[in-house]
Amino acid sequence: MKYFIVTYGCQMNVHDSEKIAAILESLDYQPAERREDADIIVFNTCAIREGAEDRVLGNIGNLKKMKKKNPDLIIAVCGCMTQKEQTANYLMNTFPFIDIVIGTFNLPKLGEYIKAVKTGRQLQLYPEGDIDESLPYKRTSGDNAWVNIMQGCNNFCTYCIVPYVRGREKSRKEESILSEIKDILAQGKYKKITLLGQNVNSYGGDLEPKVTFAQLLNDICAIDGDFTVSFMTSHPKDLTDDVIAAVAKQDKIEKYIHLPAQSGNDRILKLMNRKYTRQHYLEIIKKIRASIPNCRITSDFIVGFPTETEEEFNDTLSLVKEVRFDSIFAFMYSPRTGTVASNMEGQIPEKIKRQRVNKLLALEKLVQKEDNKR
Ligand code: 5AD
Ligand code: SF4
To answer: I want to staple 83 with a disulfide (CB 3.0 to 4.6 A). Which of 32, 64, 126, 165 is the partner?
Structure first.
């Protein structure tokens, strides 16, 4: 029997799919080259923007024909979309041919549910319990091994659905992270370790005794072996001097920091609940550049946040000009049901958001062209 996993969204999801693959292989499923050859298809979904959800919905719709041809085909949908009760309901009602709708937190039970489906039940399950750290992964990213260091997010940026679908911050114990990395390196085929968390800089604050992210980085670098370490994502409000110092000092750490700014305007940053100002952000960039020469710095921006004026958007453009990022991701603001910003007055028309995102991307291209020349 064969499986096919379709993964949407961020590295966290890519890594979750490695867990799903391990679960399926423990049930004697083998990877299929094409979804047409599969006995089970799993959609690991993303809810970060409406566009991401629309893509998932379109592709699930297309499975109807496959299910008609092969009624024994099992279709499972999991990930961030199914973690929202309303969306999970919508999926079950709109696509009755889906067999399993399962939240991220329930993944460890996927095997059990597949067995139940074979007895003819449709299952819909809501988040409960904790993510099971002991489940193995089937690593699929070449010589790079993803390692989760924490789950969830406590920041509640007003535009963001993540805290609602991934829960509150929960750090893994340092010993289990270190021993996972030692195991990975012992296999001899991994040269890169990428630490994952929604907000890696606040790692360890919830542990007893507390551990800092800088400490974790230094302890990982003390492990013997020929490997490099990188991490994502950093939040500017929590990027401490000791983390910058660790990146500067440790040869094993890649000189790369992804530091989402989201906006260059203080009023918008405040409305976004980002807890830093443009000035503060620029100071961090200055510190990074002073301590880590040639550090690659990348960023995320959202344009067309509710009430954003043209002048305020221009502050984002001027920040991008000033910092000269190595690259940026630019997103049009997408209202997510349940978040604070989705209920704000002054939503910006699609057309203006599109103009702004194009302007920002054009500027980014120009900056890169100039820098490449130099
Ligand atoms: N609309 C647009 N972009 C968003 N992001 C997060 N939530 C939204 C949203 N509702 C962007 C942020 C974040 C990146 C992963 O996705 O820029 O850093
Ligand atoms: Fe979302 Fe903000 Fe948490 Fe990042 S820090 S996951 S943008 S709430």
So the answer is: 165
